[in-house]
Amino acid sequence: MIEDVLVVFVVIGAVLTMIACGFYASWRATRLHRLHRRVDLSRAGLRAALERRRAVTADLVRELGPTAGAELGAAVTAADGGEPTESELSRELRRTLATAALRTGDIAALLPDVASAAKGVHLARVFHNAAVADTHRARRSRVVRLLRLAGGAPLPDFYEIDDRPPDIPVPVPSPDTM
Amino acid sequence: MRIGLVCPYSWDVPGGVQQHVGDLADALIARGHEVSILAPVGDRPVELPDHLVPAGRPVPVPYNGSVARLSFGPRTAARVRKWITRGDFDVVHIHEPAAPSVSLLACWVAEGPLVGTFHTANPRSRAMAAGSHALRSALEKIHARIAVSEAARRTLVEHIGGDAVLIPNGVAVRRFADAPPLPGFPGEGGSIGFLGRLDEPRKGLAVLLEAFALLAPRRPGLRLLVAGPGDPGPALAAVPDRLRDRVVLTGRLDDADKIRAYHSTDLFCAPNLGGESFGIVLTEAMAAGAAILASDIPAFEAVLDGGVAGETFAVGDAADLARRADALLDDPARRDALSRAARLTVRAYDWDTVAADIVHVYETVLPGDAAALLPGPGSRGNT
Which one in B36, B96, B166, B322 has a CA-CA gap of 20 to 30 Å to A79? Predict the structure, then answer.
């Protein structure tokens, strides 16, 4: 009789523990899923930012003309989203825009867009790499590996490029408006 | 864009984060966005902006070296949930996301893309030790992390991991640019100004009082303007009784008088000992065109552009402070030059510039940006 009660208690205890473990595993799986989604979004954001920088740079190349814009034009044509070519585009943008003589007229009007697009690449890359770092940390966890909570999802890669923007002075409000 | 801003600290108590959130809201509204702020509100009578939603009454909690007034608990959580559901925001921007207050609750409740701004730069801050799964799970939801200073960014990297973009605190430059001095200031014998809480040792008032005790006997008319709430307590004992009437304590000032205080003295001193992430007090003084003498902590060196926009002295060293103040008080031409440099340097911190950068962050994390990859209408092309 007493043994029967004991068995019932043990069974109830085991079931409750399993339910609790289930909830915990499901919570961890939800977190991981959310992280994977965050990486997908940040990767899309990064692609969009690189795309925009290429478009704006292509406009700049057209304004610069075939001579002054030759090297920048080659860099923007070569840029394909890969780390080496996009780094090269950053360097070429800095080099070209360091020549102050190129900063006049119609070119000057494009510079705020170029500055913003270059900054956009930096923002998107930092956010993407932070998402990747968080995902890597979560995937290292013992619970996640033991229960294979990540399923078949590939481990996301960091995106490392030279994204230092060209040195373009920020337009400041003139003193009489201050 | 519909933007929800979350502030963890009580709105009725003045503070750097509260002011940042309030000014950011104004700058975003000026750019044509819809903004709602969620913050705890205590009992002190204070004018609340129309777009502020109170999140409940705060309780005082020792946090990050001072006493913070925070809200936490199931009732607050319910209000946070209601605010987020009703707000239908494009982006929710949470300030100090690790603060155990409405900020952390909002991280847990929200589902859309979150933006988080980290203000704290305290290597020993317990709240930043993000070991627990509960805290980690909240911070993982933040898609874009902003640090207001290099120090805040380093704190974040060390305690939480991953990187953040650097966007400095803003200052409403135009609001501070012009104001008449407070009655009787700067005065014949010259004056030095201080602004901040009197009873927080890290604000460094004690160092300034000690320096004043060294300077005052040599400079008969010199006065010290001490503006801010709190009881100076034993720090005031550094000033001998016969000099005491030359230390003018104003108590808490309203916003208009605070701006006047920056315009009231020949020299503005920021003697902070550390624990300062950014130095809002400095950007405000710069916007007012004050000649600045500040301690050489990293946050201040950065804002003053390595000594261009104001002089620095060895942190905590009253003798060094007194020596440099002495030289500056005798050199009006140098003070003018510092004032001009300050006004020029502070433009990078104007809210117009800073808010544009923050909107750029919002645009980067909006899911709509993924749609911008696809050609055709409906794509959210950000210019």
Answer: B166
